[in-house]
Amino acid sequence: MELNTKEVKDMISFYKEEKLILNAKLKHVNSMLRKLQGGNVDGESGVLLTRTGSKAKKRGPKSVWGKFILEQLNKAQRPMTYKELMDLAMETHGYDKSKFTNVRASILNSAFRLRAISGKVTTIGEQGKKEKFLVSTAWLNKNGKLPQAHTKWLKETMNFTPERVDMSSIPTAKYEEDLVA
């Protein structure tokens, strides 16, 4: 098939237009299927979608305490108690004892959001004991067990034998920025 440059340009232009039209139709079909099926989650990534089908973004300021908790866990590379995190926060930020209740509330709220909403941390406990340790969910294997080094540290240092974590109870990230961070 012999084509001159004008015919090639015309064909390229035609197929680009067709591609745009087909992409628009496909987007519309996907949007209608999602609306009819009541889905507000992206099929591939599991991220929340807006009414228009675009990926939802978090509103409001990002938690400085949540970032602090994740940084401290990564820095220590071992499970930590809430009390330990609170003491570190008081020391790091140079607060006096009068601010402890505020710091405590902030740490507990942020840990809750990290645990219940974004699924970045979870707590591990021991049967019959009230004390819990905060761990990064990235440390857990698919069976919900900590690495041997963490388990050994808990046993030797804290006289604590952690129970297995139910991995199905850990929520998945709802926003795209949570998948990266």
Description:
- With 181 residues, this protein is mainly alpha-helical.
- It contains six helices and two strands, in the order H-H-H-H-E-E-H-H.
- It has a two-stranded antiparallel ribbon with strand order 1-2.
- A hairpin with a 6-residue loop joins strand 1 and strand 2.
- The protein is elongated.
- The N and C termini lie far apart (52 Å).
- The model has no long low-confidence stretch (mean pLDDT 83).
Kindly estimate the percentage of residues that lie in beta strands according to DSSP.
Answer: 5-15%
What is the alpha-carbon Rg in Å?
A: 25 Å
Oligomer: single chain
User: Which range best describes the helical content: under 10%, 10-25%, 25-40%, 40-55%, 55-70% or over 70%?
Assistant: 40-55%
Largest sheet: 2 strands, antiparallel
| Beginning-to-end CA distance, first to last residue | 52 Å
- Count of helix runs: 6
Query: Mean pLDDT, as a whole number?
Result: 83
Secondary-structure content class:
mainly alpha
**SSE arrangement, N to C:** HHHHEEHH
Strand order of the largest sheet: 1-2
Spans of at least 5 consecutive residues with low confidence: none
